[in-house]
Amino acid sequence: MIHNIEEERKKQNRREAFLSEPFSDEELMRLISQVEEKALIHAPGGMKEEIFFRLGAQKRRRQKRQIFSYRAKVLVGMAAALAVLFLVPVNDSETADTLYSGIVGVSDRDEKARDEWEQEALDRQQDIDRKWERYCKGQERAYARKQYFEKIADKLTDYEKWED
User: Fold this and answer.
1) How far apart are CA 50 and CA 57, in angstroms?
2) Where are the domains of the chain?
3) In this predicted model, what pLDDT tens digit does every residue of 68-78 receive, in sequence order?
4) Do residues 23 and 31 lie in contact, with contact meaning Cβ atoms separated by under 8 Å?
5) DSSP states of 7-34 as a string?
6) Quick one: how far is CA 148 from the chain centroid?
């Protein structure tokens, strides 16, 4: 109801402001000159700074919400992982030993697996070293070949000078 009253007032004001006759050329020129002289209405002094401050505040709030959301997701994931660890029953004794040895220490079987892993790592490192040595020797041969051809090119240019 109040909404309708406000709308009616706006319509009435529009009707009163409506000009029945168009401006004459002189009146129109006078209106244009007045607008050109007084047209620019300046914004309040601190309006720009206030707008940028509010935008920055909104951006900071959004970032805080995103960080909070991320932290909450991580905490929920950690809680779920811990719940699964504690609530899943372990019936197999070998699985229980494996879990216990992973928490407390290393069993003999794990010690053998570690030795095999270390041996494989040493073999890979030795293979890398051999390849590096072959690469270095190849580079030395390429350098020697380059020097040899440069000497030949120098001799040929010297020979041309002798004929002249």
Assistant:
1) 10
2) 108-164
3) 999 999 999 99
4) yes
5) HHHHHHHHHHH--SSPPPHHHHHHHHHH
6) 53
